[in-house]
Specification:
The protein has about 270 residues and is mainly β. It has three domains: about 80 residues, no CATH class; about 50 residues; about 100 residues, Jelly Rolls. Helix content is about 0%, strand content about 40%. It contains no helices and 20 strands. A five-stranded antiparallel beta sheet has the order 3-4-5-6-7, with no helix packed on it. The protein has a five-stranded antiparallel beta sheet with strand order 8-9-10-11-12, with no helix packed on it. Strands 13-15-20-17 form a four-stranded mixed beta sheet, with no helix packed on it. The radius of gyration is 33 Å and the shape is rod-shaped.
Length: about 270
């Protein structure tokens, strides 16, 4: 059936397929177009651009009976948008990305366009300004940014949450190595005597440390405050921690060293 038609009110029902060819149109003013599927059947509204002569021209809006889902699908790809109660799902084609575009200010400048994209090649969630991914979140939860990550919270800040840290106690003497594979934590040193003006070194085995990382060290408790100098050299999977007795006398104290790993690179 092909004809130009304008409908101003009331109900219109077709019991067979209706096709509007190029140059024809159907306009509803103050009325409702309802597409009703058969019992347990889907209801489909097809929208074909450019005479529908290419698969990519063909879009369908389908109410899926089996899942109570509204689906927007393109014939040229399996990429769809699914809308269910309380959820909108954007599904990319095989090996294709899935993205939501947010255009501010009429989208008339490149910087107006933001994409929230699930990227197929690496499974990252990317926040993209025009064509540049400025923030990425990996499937493992790692967050990276091409610029600063800042906190304005007066009671929060940027740091480690519960679960990132741990504790370990040094056995035998002050040069005995310890193992704690955490990004931060507390090391309780052995209370063996350390001579005046003497440096002792021990190894912290920690798989979280890379050779380019930096360790922040503080003497937080135990022993004489201000009597020690702390320093560390990071390696792959470990760090050497140096402790110096700055006083004029021997010290036999089980000092507690708090450490935090700051990730670094040389490129």
């Amino acid at each position: 059936m092909a004809f130009p038609y304008r409908w101003y009110g009331g109900d219109v029902e077709w019991t067979q397929n209706v096709t509007f060819t190029s140059g024809t149109s159907l306009t509803f003013e103050g009325a409702t177009l309802t597409v009703t599927g058969t019992e347990a059947g889907d209801a489909t509204l097809k929208l074909w651009a450019d005479e529908g002569d290419d698969a990519g021209d063909k879009w369908s809006v389908v109410a899926l009976a089996a899942s109570a889902t509204l689906q927007f699908a393109n014939a040229d790809t399996t990429s769809v948008v699914n809308v269910t109660a309380g959820q909108v799902a954007v599904v990319g084609a095989e090996a294709g990305n899935a993205a939501i575009l947010l255009d501010a200010d009429e989208g008339d400048d490149n910087a107006d366009s933001w994409f929230i994209q699930s990227t197929a090649s690496d499974n990252d969630l990317d926040f993209i300004n025009h064509t540049t991914a400025v923030v990425s979140i990996t499937s493992g939860g790692a967050i990276s940014s091409v610029s600063s990550i800042l906190s304005s919270g007066t009671a929060g800040g940027v740091g480690y949450a519960t679960g990132a840290g741990g504790t370990v106690t040094q056995a035998t003497n002050k040069s005995t190595g310890v193992t704690l594979s955490k990004m931060c934590g507390a090391i309780t040193m052995n209370n063996a005597s350390l001579a005046a003006g003497t440096i002792v070194s021990f190894t912290l085995t920690n798989t979280s440390i890379a050779a380019t990382d930096v360790l922040v060290l503080n003497h937080i408790s135990g022993g004489t405050v201000g009597s020690y100098t702390l320093n560390a050299q990071a390696g792959a999977g470990s760090a050497v921690i140096n402790v110096r007795n700055n006083t004029a006398g021997d010290l036999a104290e089980a000092i507690v060293i708090q450490f935090a790993v700051i990730k670094g690179v040389n490129a």
